[in-house]
Design brief:
Elements (H helix, E strand, L loop, with lengths): L4 E10 L4 E6 L2 E6 L6 E9 L3 E11 L25 H18 L9 E2 L14 E9 L2 E7 L12 E3 L10 H14 L14 E8 L6 E7 L7 H11 L3 E8 L11 E7 L3 E5 L2 E5 L9 H15 L6 E5 L5 H6 L5 E6 L2 H13 L5 E5 L15 E4 L8 H10 L3 E6 L2 H12 L4 E8 L9 E7 L1
Parallel strand pairs: 3-5, 6-21, 11-12, 16-17, 16-19, 17-18, 19-20
Antiparallel strand pairs: 1-2, 1-4, 2-3, 4-5, 7-8, 7-10, 8-9, 10-11, 12-13, 14-15, 20-22, 21-22
Helix pairs in contact: 1-8, 2-3
Length: 454
Amino acid sequence: MKFTELSLEIVDMALPDGYGVGRKDGFVFFVPGAVPGDRLKIKVTGQKKRFSYGEIFEIEEPSPDRRQPPCPYFGLCGGCTLQHMSYRKQLEVKERHLVQTLARIGHMDTASIAMLPIVPSPQHYFSRNKVEMAFGKDEYGLIAGLREGAWQKMDYEGKVISLGKCLAFSDCVEKILPPILDFFNGHRFLSYDQATKKGLLRRLVLKESKTTDEVMVILETSRGILPNMQDLWRMLSNKAPEVVSLWRAINTRRSDAGLYEKKEHLFGKRFIEESLGGLTFRIYPQSFFQPNSRIAETLYQAAMELGQPGPQDRVLGLYCGMGPIEMMFSRRTNKVTGVDSNPDNIANARENARINGIENCIFIEGMVERVGSRLPAKPEILVIDPPRGGISNKGCDLIARIEPGKIVYVSCNPSTLARDLNNLTKYGYVLRKVVPFDAFPQTGHLETVALVER
């Protein structure tokens, strides 16, 4: 059946991209910018066998949850996709998405699982402690911003939307961007072109301590000379005194994956510090830290409450990063071991343990799939905090071999969480409790902590 224009009621939201979902005559329609409860007239922009894409032609009756987005770049950049929806509705949509994903992908009987209400973010805006902006160009010269969002028709490179502010990260962006762009435009530096592999400037990464408000600036570039960096440092120090650290990172890969071939500390401090649960964490360019500092302490506390570590329990943390969860567990139990494949993460974790006076945590560098023989003992409690891709099949095999009594799984991706939980049931594990966290307000993403027991 062919559609061109039609009236449609939006009944759901597809996450993480944030498309509104409507149904008519057996067809599903995905509509960017729509809110559940909207009555819309849409123009069909693409039609498949069982679903179609549409764009809003007219809002016939707005949803009571529709809001005016406060960000002027909403709908253009790929950062926030839910600003046009009330925060209450955002939480409701995310909870429903998690339950549906556990049932659809994980084949879980969600009625038998203790599902706690989603924990809201303490801040609805300015919550993120890190932003990664791409360099690009327009008719006036060099720009910096975020890539085009899923709602736009992206070209091969992904068009860069020039930003003057960022409500997701921090208001410091308005002070930091102008001197950086003025400096590089004045020296006629070019942004990196992924197709031609020409140009020097790739990304601008900003990290902010929500404890001290100090900011680290990381210039991600291809190979080449960056002259007069002392002039840039002087300009930043004058215009944005919260900038206390300047680094350069070289990335020669085709993609903007944030994997650095070389890092060079240019000026200021080598790290910034964040405080969490009475512990201090040093943040470096390569450090992975929970992106929402304000909710991280609550999230890690929930992980401990689910795990219920006793004084004699041994805890193993896989994909430990810089070790914040492991260090929090160490205050309640006998011995904690963290494993991560990134040597920078392990060095960072060991340093953080040392500066906090923690002596019952050890950190091992190695692939989770291969580290089994190097573990000191089988743990009573396993903590898993993998990247978005989740646990590999060999990782699940390792879990089956070490047979922990409890698994606390921290996930930023409901789909891979559901898949991995389903795999664990094959080894005799049962999902007991789930706690979702809105660690990414105004977006379609969420964090989840799950308790699994043998």
